[in-house]
Design brief:
Length: 236
C-alpha cells in the first residue's frame, strides 16, 4: 500500500486527516516500510493529487492500484479489505455512531479549533507552501488569518463548549470507543494533533480528562503521536 500525506517544514506532520489514517494503519498492525510506503505531498502539489485521485484533498491510500480518497472511505476500505484484523469502525451496527463522531470531529470540533490555530499554522508548513496556504485560506475566509484568529478568549470558550460531550464521555471510560481505542478516537484525536503540532498555544487546560486522554493517545503504538517534530521553538 502507498500512503500519500501532506508533509510540512522539515518533515512535520500537521495535517489532521493524515493522523486519522496513520493511527488506523497502526491499529491494523500495519508498519511503515514493511506494509505501507509513505509518499510525501506538499500543499501546493494540487495537480499531482488531482491526477492520482480526481480531487485535491489528501491523504490518499493506494492499495493494489486502487486509489481511495477521503479518510472515512479509507478507514472503511481498510476494514473491508482486512476484516480479520481489529475492526476500526465497529462492524455494521457500530458504523453509524462512529460516523456521527467523525462528522462531529469535522464539523464542530475542527470548525471551532481552526480560529485558534490557523494564524500559527504557516510556520509548520514547508516554506514553499506558506504563500499558497495563506492565499487560499484567506480567499475562502474573506479575512486575514490573523483577523480570523482574533478574540482568542471568545474562540476558546466556543471550543470548550463543543468539547463538553467529549469530556463527559471520557469521564466514563478511558477511550471514546470504550476501554480500548478505535476509529472514533483517531478521528477526534487528529484534531487535537493539529492543535498540538500546528500552534505553540495549548487549547486544553494542563489537567483535564481530555488532556489525559490526549496523552494516552499520543503514547499509543510506541508513541506514534510524537514521532515527528512539534511546533518550531524559534521563528522560521
Ligand atoms: N474530507 C477529507 C478532507 C481532507 C482534507 O481537508 N485534507 C487537507 C489536508 S489536512 C487537504 O488536502 N487540503 C488541501 C487543500 O485544502 O488545498 C478527508 O476526510 O480526507
Amino acid at each position: 500500500m502507498i500512503f500519500y500525506e501532506r508533509v510540512g517544514h522539515e518533515g512535520r506532520r500537521p495535517s489532521p486527516f493524515s493522523w486519522r489514517i496513520r493511527y488506523a494503519l497502526a491499529h491494523k498492525n500495519f508498519r511503515e516500510g514493511a506494509d505501507f510506503e509513505v509518499r510525501p505531498v506538499r500543499f501546493a502539489d494540487v495537480e499531482m493529487v488531482r491526477q492520482l485521485s480526481g480531487q485535491q484533498y489528501t491523504p490518499l491510500l493506494s492499495d493494489a492500484g486502487h486509489v481511495v480518497h477521503d479518510t472515512w472511505n479509507i478507514a472503511a476500505h481498510l476494514d473491508k479489505r482486512f476484516p480479520d484484523t481489529h475492526l476500526l469502525l465497529g462492524g455494521t451496527s457500530g458504523q453509524g455512531p462512529v460516523r456521527m463522531i467523525n462528522s462531529w470531529a469535522d464539523k464542530a470540533l475542527l470548525a471551532t479549533l481552526r480560529p485558534l490555530v490557523l494564524a500559527d499554522f504557516p510556520a509548520v508548513l514547508d516554506a514553499g507552501d506558506r504563500a499558497y496556504f495563506r492565499q487560499s485560506r484567506e480567499q475562502a475566509l474573506g479575512v486575514t488569518l490573523e483577523e480570523y484568529c482574533a478574540d482568542r478568549p471568545v474562540k476558546r470558550a466556543a471550543f470548550a463548549a463543543v468539547c463538553a460531550p467529549l469530556e463527559f464521555t471520557l469521564q466514563q471510560h478511558a477511550f471514546i470507543a470504550s476501554d480500548t481505542p478505535a476509529y472514533a478516537d483517531y478521528a477526534v484525536f487528529s484534531v487535537f494533533q493539529m492543535a498540538r503540532l500546528g500552534s505553540p498555544n495549548d487549547v486544553l487546560p494542563t489537567s483535564s480528562v481530555i488532556s489525559d486522554w490526549r496523552m494516552r493517545m499520543v503514547s499509543l503504538f510506541g508513541g506514534l503521536g510524537d514521532q515527528f517534530p512539534g511546533y518550531p521553538r524559534t521563528a522560521i
